Amino acid sequence: SVLLLRAGLALLAWPIYLLSFLGIWEPFCRKVFFPFFLEKISGVHEKKSKKHKQELFRNLPDFRGPSGELRLLEIGTGSGSNFQFYPPGCRVTCSDINPNFQEGLSRNMKKNQHLHYEQFLVAAGEDLRQVPSGSVDAVVCTLVLCSVHSVSSTLREVLRVLRPGGAFYFLEHVAAEHSSWMYFWQQVCYPTWKLVFAGCCLTRELWKNLEEAKFSELKIQHISVALPWMPIEPHIVGYGVK
């Protein structure tokens, strides 16, 4: 039944599959569709997850470095929807593999002038070579680990750039319980969803990757963030300390 429903969904999305075959969809998606879609869906997701983010980032000031400043790197910054939760004076380095979020990013920078913006890096989470080892106090990653090519490589880079005692903050959608209807629909939607939404994977069990990474302390909470007609309700939220 999963395979039949996948085929039906692919049939409905055949224009996108055709554009992908012709090599047109990916550049259009990265430059136009995904930035537009992500900004729209971020507004809805933000309303649903705001309390969770407020609680998540509440202790960010505790990870200030010896100088008293908080140096923060955000992986997959997108349009900057997390800026509002960072403490005043925080020095933020933005990074994203997709450089086409500038309009929304500039708008959120203007809204959040309590922060110091250091630089914007075009970089994948798996390759942060532009960031020196042990140079940041905190790394933030929200709704990004679903799309990276390698979760384990990304977490290794996170640990490399963090100073000892620094923290990695995350909020990510994950696979549902295998016995649930949500997981069934995640399985059905998986191939088409991944194509349409720039490599986003619906069925990653990211808590396992985090548990396997070498954090000295790890706090993970499983939560529900329900979005209309979206198979991404199960989330994890928390932080790990290097």
From TrEMBL:
Membrane-spanning intervals of the chain: 7-25
Q: Say which domain of life the source belongs to.
A: Eukaryota
For this UniProt record, give its keywords in alphabetical order, as a comma-separated list.
Answer: Membrane, Transmembrane, Transmembrane helix
Keyword Oxidoreductase attributed: no
The answer on whether this UniProt entry bears the keyword Membrane reads yes
Record-level Gene Ontology MF annotations:
S-adenosylmethionine-dependent methyltransferase activity
Sequence ranges assigned to domain Methyltransferase type in this UniProt record: 73-170
What is the name attached to this protein's record? Answer: MET7A protein
Query: What is the native source organism of this protein?
Result: Hypocryptadius cinnamomeus
What gene name does this entry carry? Mettl7a
